[in-house]
């Protein structure tokens, strides 16, 4: 926008210079008239400079400057004629594009009336020489003025609409930033509340279990020499309390790691969507709803494993399709991932797969591979359903 304004100013100055030269040329036979007209035109130029540089800041000064320009322009047009008439259009251009409100419309009307009045005056002054061409010329000039005004008003409407769109876009961007900021604060508050809830749960459940465990161990220590059966019973109870405490702790830790509103299946779908968005690989995901009920640590293992296996299939298997199945049976949980890649003769396990194996085996699970050449790659993970 600044560049356009800059070029407009250069063009405006060039037009002023040409008009000034034409005024002097048309008054060349009368030195006094030439001097007076040149001074008047110089006043217009200086007035225009002051108006665009300083007077535009206040309405009174601005329209006083416009009035002076209109009066001097009309005087010069009456006595000199020629290209000075162009200045009418320059004033109209400025009033229509940059003026606002009733006062602007008033000055536009006055300038149009002045221009039409000037044309009428010239016709009346040369009444004896009026012919068909003169009348046609008047009609064409009037039509041109109307077209010029309509074009300027249309351009102004477009500029105004663009400014409004820009303003609304800025407001929308600001609203988005505020909404994002509020969303982050709400998320932080939600996480903080969830952590407080988990902390209270750990304190209540785990604290109770540990107190009971400590009491059982104290009693066991005192009676182990004289009542071995009772001591064994207390030790068994202690094992149960220990297992229960570990389960509660695992659930609490997993709850802190999980997003409050996102389900496990949603997390798997997010992995699939991220890969499919590339447009290179199609992934078919088959997950039972009951999988949401499995242990939190199992969810963590399955999520990490599927992500690692998909990465390997895309990176090394050169596949175009991956099938993922996650099923929960009575005694076991089975995860099968297969692709239609190239397969391989020599299968080398990287750190990612070795890490998966270790975690599966830690929970007494098992893992099977099928990497036959030209048949793609298939991996089966099995975890006991506790």
From TrEMBL:
Keywords: ATP-binding, Coiled coil, Kinase, Membrane, Nucleotide-binding, Phosphoprotein, Transferase, Transmembrane, Transmembrane helix, Two-component regulatory system
A single Gene Ontology CC term: membrane
Chain ranges passing through the membrane: 32-50, 106-124, 136-158
Molecular function GO terms recorded: ATP binding; phosphorelay sensor kinase activity; protein dimerization activity
InterPro entries in alphabetical order: HATPase_C_sf, HATPase_dom, Sensor_HK_TwoCompSys, Sig_transdc_His_kin_sub3_dim/P
All residue ranges annotated as the Histidine kinase/HSP90-like ATPase domain in the record: 302-384
Reactions accelerated catalytically: ATP + protein L-histidine = ADP + protein N-phospho-L-histidine
Enzyme Commission number, as recorded: 2.7.13.3
Residue intervals of the Signal transduction histidine kinase subgroup 3 dimerisation and phosphoacceptor domain: 194-259
Pfam families for the chain: HATPase_c (PF02518), HisKA_3 (PF07730)
Gene3D superfamilies, alphabetized: 1.20.5.1930, Histidine kinase-like ATPase, C-terminal domain
Coiled coil: 155-189
PANTHER family: NITRATE/NITRITE SENSOR PROTEIN NARX-RELATED (PTHR24421), NITRATE_NITRITE SENSOR PROTEIN NARQ (PTHR24421:SF10)
Protein name from the UniProt record: histidine kinase
Species, as recorded: Tissierella pigra
């Amino acid at each position: 926008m600044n560049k356009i304004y800059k070029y407009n100013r250069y063009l405006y100055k060039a037009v002023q210079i040409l008009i000034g030269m034409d005024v002097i040329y048309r008054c060349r036979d009368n030195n006094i008239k030439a001097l007076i007209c040149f001074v008047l035109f110089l006043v217009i130029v200086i007035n225009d400079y002051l108006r665009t540089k300083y007077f535009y800041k206040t309405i009174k000064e601005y329209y006083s400057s416009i009035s002076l320009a209109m009066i001097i322009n009309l005087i010069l047009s009456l006595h000199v004629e020629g290209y000075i008439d162009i200045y009418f259009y320059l004033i109209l251009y400025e009033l229509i594009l940059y003026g606002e409100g009733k006062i602007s419309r008033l000055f536009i009307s006055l300038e149009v009336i002045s221009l039409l009045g000037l044309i009428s005056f010239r016709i009346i002054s040369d009444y004896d020489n009026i012919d068909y061409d003169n009348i046609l010329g008047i009609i064409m000039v009037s039509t041109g003025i109307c077209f010029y005004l309509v074009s300027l008003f249309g351009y102004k409407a477009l500029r105004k609409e663009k400014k409004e769109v820009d303003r609304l876009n800025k407001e929308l961007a600001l609203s988005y930033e505020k909404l994002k900021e509020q969303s982050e604060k709400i998320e932080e508050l939600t996480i903080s509340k969830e952590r407080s809830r988990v902390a209270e749960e750990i304190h209540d459940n785990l604290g109770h279990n540990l107190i009971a465990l400590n009491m059982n161990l104290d009693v066991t220590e005192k009676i182990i020499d004289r009542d071995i059966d009772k001591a064994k019973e207390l030790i068994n109870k202690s094992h149960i309390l220990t297992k229960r405490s570990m389960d509660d702790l695992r659930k609490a830790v997993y709850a802190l790691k999980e997003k409050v509103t996102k389900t496990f299946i949603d997390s798997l779908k997010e992995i699939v969507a991220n890969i499919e968005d590339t447009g290179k690989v199609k992934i078919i995901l088959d997950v039972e709803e009951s999988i949401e009920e499995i242990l939190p640590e199992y969810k963590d293992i399955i999520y990490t494993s599927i992500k690692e296996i998909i990465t390997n299939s895309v990176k090394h298997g050169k596949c175009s399709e991956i099938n993922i199945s996650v099923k929960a049976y009575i005694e076991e949980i089975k995860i099968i991932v297969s692709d239609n890649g190239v397969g391989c003769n020599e299968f080398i396990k990287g750190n990612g797969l070795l890490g998966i194996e270790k975690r599966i085996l830690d929970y007494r699970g098992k893992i099977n591979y099928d990497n036959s050449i030209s048949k793609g790659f298939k991996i089966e993970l099995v975890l006991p359903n506790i």
